[in-house]
Write a structure and sequence with these properties.
Bound molecules: adenosine-5'-diphosphate
Shape: globular
Strand content: 15-25%
Distance between the termini: 38 Å
CATH topology: Rossmann fold
Number of helices: 5
Helix content: 25-40%
Order of helices and strands: EHEHEHEHEH
Strand order of the largest sheet: 3-2-1-4-5
CATH superfamily: HUPs
Largest sheet: 5 strands, parallel
Number of domains: 1
Length: 152
């Protein structure tokens, strides 16, 4: 059976931090599915189409990366697509506490599921999408924080 991991998130926008987690996971799995969560209640900065096309472009040279959008629970997506691993990045202890509860709840809902964590690389640890959005809103340059192929 193929080892498939899903990397769920909003990717609003994708950052070099997300990119790094996906690239580092490639040797561990046969396939990594970047799954952009669609939440009708949440107001996003970049429209879904732009995020989807942008993230696809970032990984276009990696055939084992697939980029999709999904609605609803990540465990339901895993059930539907026969995915056994959720991939997440850990930056800080705050990430750990947040991820611990989600990971344990997901495991409760779908026991065959494992959440796999990769530690953020030190230089990417301070990076998050919300800071990137703030810099963009204020006319700053985010080229050091966002993959080149994600055209802003
Ligand atoms: P969301 O808010 O939609 O979950 P995030 O960007 O916060 O989106 O998180 C998606 C995943 O990416 C999480 O596992 C998060 O820990 C990880 N991640 C985000 N930024 C980084 C980074 N700089 N380094 C490593 N992992 C990261």
């Amino acid at each position: 059976m193929k080892k498939i991991a899903v990397f769920p998130g909003s990717f609003d926008p994708i950052t070099r931090g997300h990119e790094s987690i996906v690239l580092r996971a490639l040797p561990l799995f046969d396939k990594v599915i970047v799954a952009i969560g669609v939440n009708a209640e949440k107001k996003n900065f970049f429209p879904l189409e732009k995020r989807l096309n942008g993230v696809r472009r970032v990984f276009e040279e990696h055939p084992s990366v697939e980029v999709i959008t999904y609605e609803g629970l990540t465990v339901d997506l895993c059930r539907k697509m026969d995915i056994r691993y959720i991939l997440r990045g850990l930056r800080t202890s705050a990430d750990f506490e947040f991820e611990r509860s989600i990971g344990q709840m997901n495991k409760k809902m779908l026991p065959e599921l494992e959440t796999v964590f990769l530690l953020a690389t030190p230089e990417l640890t301070p990076l998050n999408s919300s800071v990137v959005r703030d810099i963009i809103r204020n006319g700053g340059n985010v080229s050091a924080f966002v993959p080149e192929k994600f055209v802003l």
